[in-house]
Amino acid sequence: MASVNKVILVGNCGRDPEIRYLPSGQAVANVSVATSSRRKDRTSGEMVEDTQWHRVTFYDRLAEIAGEYVKKGRPIYVEGRLKYGKYTDQSGVEKNTVDIIATELQLLGGREGMGGPGEEGGGGGGGYSRPPAAPRAAAPAAAPRQPAARPAPASSGFEDMDDDIPF
Fold first, then answer.
1. What digits encode the pLDDT tens for the residues 104-132?
2. How far apart are CA 143 and CA 57, in angstroms?
3. pTM above 0.70?
4. Which residue among 28, 40, 43, 121 is buried most deeply as judged by most CB within 10 Å?
5. Of 19, 35, 18, 36, which Cα lies nearest the Cα of 27?
6. 54-93: b or e for each residue (b if 16 or more CB lie within 10 Å)?
7. Using CA atoms, how far apart are residues 97 and 113, in angstroms rounded to an integer?
8. How confident is the model at residue 45 (pLDDT cuts 50, 70, 90)?
């Protein structure tokens, strides 16, 4: 029977990535990702925000990409797998760790700080923002109905081109 170990996170980076190279030359980048959820407190009735911090590790080319483009506060999408570990701290106490070993990375939000055209207006990226709805014009109530004039077909600019394609 097959098993699945898969994690999907959409959250904000808590710090800039730390990049290091193993003796083999393999790049490794570590970053903290914060995810938040909101719920209503049963006793007080107030909205409470719960933030969880996740340690994410990138390897090889993905580590180099993360090091170049991921910045503190930037929203990202990460896919990966869970990896559990243990270590002993300086006082001799054994601690458990949970890391996410990333297999995919997608930058979300605008292109701020990247020198792109979205710098001034922010904008959305990664397909997670919806464009604002177009305003509707109010129809005059007492205007008599006339048949609508048919618009001329839009010109594609290719009418004068030959049909012969050289490839």
1. 999 987 665 554 443 333 334 433 222 33
2. 65
3. no
4. 28
5. 19
6. bebbbbeebbbbbbeebbeebbbbbebeeeeeeeeeeeee
7. 33
8. confident
